[in-house]
Amino acid sequence: MNADDAHTGSLFGDAPPASAGVGAASPGVELERLAADLPQRLRLGTSSWHFPGWANRVWDRLYSEKQLSRAGLPAYARHPLFGAVSLDRSFYRPLGVDEYANYADQVPTGFRFVVKAPAQVTDALVRQTGGQGVEANPDFLDPELAWRQFVAPASAGLGDKLGALVFQISPLPSRLLTDIGPAIARLRVLLQAVREVESRVPEAVVAVEVRNPQWLTPAFVAALKAHGATYCLGLHPRMPSPDAQLPILRQLWPGPFVCRWNLNPSHGDYGYEAARERYAPFDQLVDPDPHTRDTLARVIAGTVDHGQPAFVTINNKAEGCAPESVRALAEAVAALRRTAR
Fold first, then answer.
1. pLDDT at residue 18 is higher than 60
2. Which CATH number fits the domain that encloses residue 258?
């Protein structure tokens, strides 16, 4: 099978046009069969796509990070297991309608984007380049700004290819953690405002990811429920284990499942920089975490069996190589489905 045939009969629609200068790796029969065993409501993917270390897994050869960032998305979308991608650029600066539309034009009809809200909306602090908070952010959870700089352009540009809008709320300063109530009240107002996205993209999911366990209260769950949002299961050492976060999801079921596997949750305070140094060039699994994969597989099964969509995106810094993590998770999902038949 050549690269141009890689998405023939894909679960996610017709193949996108060939990428200028970036070719897709030939997936092989086993990968195609694995993709065919997955539920149609499940979309797996990675956090971004610009990694040279994925050569011969996603790309047909070695390309530079710059080449992949600019022209790799169509080749990425030809991978049989990739029905989604986490678009993380939007966290660092707001994207315009044309930028979102350009991404949408590069992928097949059934592909979906998981898009992060800008930090200007989701961070309680204004930060320096190195990440140090310097002052309170007056735009934190501002509903008008969230709509204007995020929800409106993303929904207009991506259209039906918008899968999930994720408000990943950065770690809060200690003064806000002592009483989480006011932050939840602000979140309620924001969620009420962005719910209008349903009129533009009816199947789009609004999800909230947090980085402090203090958020995980009955009031937080009530805010999500009241405005049709869901909890994004964020796998990160700052948060409780995946199993410990499941009670939040159970209170929101049946409903969609959104998960962003950012870091290995068993690594304690193992940060992104340390993970990058340990795992680069992201070409193999270094710290396999089968327990987390099995947990996700069970949640996925429960979600899709109730007719709900599931979006799971995985970072290279979770186990060392996101495409291999996706494959291992897909195998866990397929095995669980075979056992249930």
1. no
2. 3.20.20.410
